[in-house]
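pasting Membrane protein SirB2 for the record, 124 residues
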Amino acid sequence: MYMALKHSHMLFIALSVTFLAVRFLLSLKSPALLQNKFLKIAPHVVDTFLLLTAIGLMLTIQQYPFQTPWLTDKLFGLFAYIGLAVMALKGRTLLMRWVGFLGALSWLALVGKVAITKTPVLFG
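structre below
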């Protein structure tokens, strides 16, 4: 069960980042394409399954945020990633959008490092 959840979680991470990148690039080049129904719904479905697999993993390994420092780091990193992803897609200026996009990817890299090493960076 653990391996299935882990690999599903990693798949949804890859899909989520791909949707962010595609939507970001479209927002720069062809904003009208962002009105496509698939591009409006699919990222939310993927992110929902990403969250569900994260909860499933957490319950499977019986480690929880605010009790396990590396999971607390991942949770705060997730909030930062979401906030910066929103800024990347809805920022008022081009600079704000690029800062949001690169910042979101940076937080994602930090969360990935914490997930692999199980070593907290923020709340260690």
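DSSP finds four helices and no strands in the chain.
The CA atoms of residues 88 and 98 lie 6 Å apart.
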